[in-house]
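Subgroup meeting minutes
Present: P.N., E.W., G.H.
Scribe: E.W.

1. P.N. recapped why we're keeping a running log of single-chain structure predictions: easier to compare across weeks, and new members can see raw inputs and outputs side by side.
2. G.H. added today's entry (272 aa).
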Amino acid sequence: MISNPASVPPPNLRIVPLANVRPHEKGDIQRSQPLMQILRQAATFTNPPVVAEIADGSYVIMDGSNRHSSLQALGFAHILVQVADYESDFVELGVWQHIIADWDSQSFLRELEKIDHVTLRQGWDAGAAAQALLRDGSVHSIHAGVDSLQDRNAALRQIVESYHRNATLYRTPLTEPDLIWSLFPSGAAMVMFRQYQPRDIINAALEAAYLPPGVSRHIIQGRALNLNYPMSCLRSALPLAEKNNQLQDWLREQYARRSVRFYAEATYHFDE
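Output recorded in log:
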């Protein structure tokens, strides 16, 4: 938590080769297909993915994998990103909880038991890959009996896919069961994942050992939203250096016109 919101720096925006940007999580086809249609016809690029620059000069996506994969599928050479420093106090890494709704809890548990190398145990276990809290209050720890990073994250992807294809899935930062069940009356279970460190995210990207979509949660102080940068500038055949010069000219104009606003307070958006 930032004690002095006034210390949050302006967003570090740049245009980079799309091939140099690495996701750390599997893309969500339910989100990327509609997004691709929107981006194909869009006049502006609204919310740039947030990335961390790593030692080899490439970038790991913290948030925005579906925007990245959609532009990749559309044949873009470059992408506009916001670069954030993983080592700073302005980036916080957490996890989402998954609310499993419109499905019954026993069917959910049976599907988990069908997955190779995955076992369920009664009760909470901090060493497990995840925990399943049922609406009746019972808890099952979900264990992935594999050793390598690739196999562990592959098992996690299978766990999430087992309920993603059968239930309605909601993501939430909340952890209080009574509040969650009141907000999600059709919820049958909540899956809670272990906490990750930045190195886990970077290794998942570098080794293509992708996490499931919608598990990691990055809170970026000073995130750039509603940028509305012209898509024509991203699509153009200009060299990368010229594109970045063009971006900086555009940014200076936005600040000069007082079009940039900084909101320090936490907010809830009801228009997603």
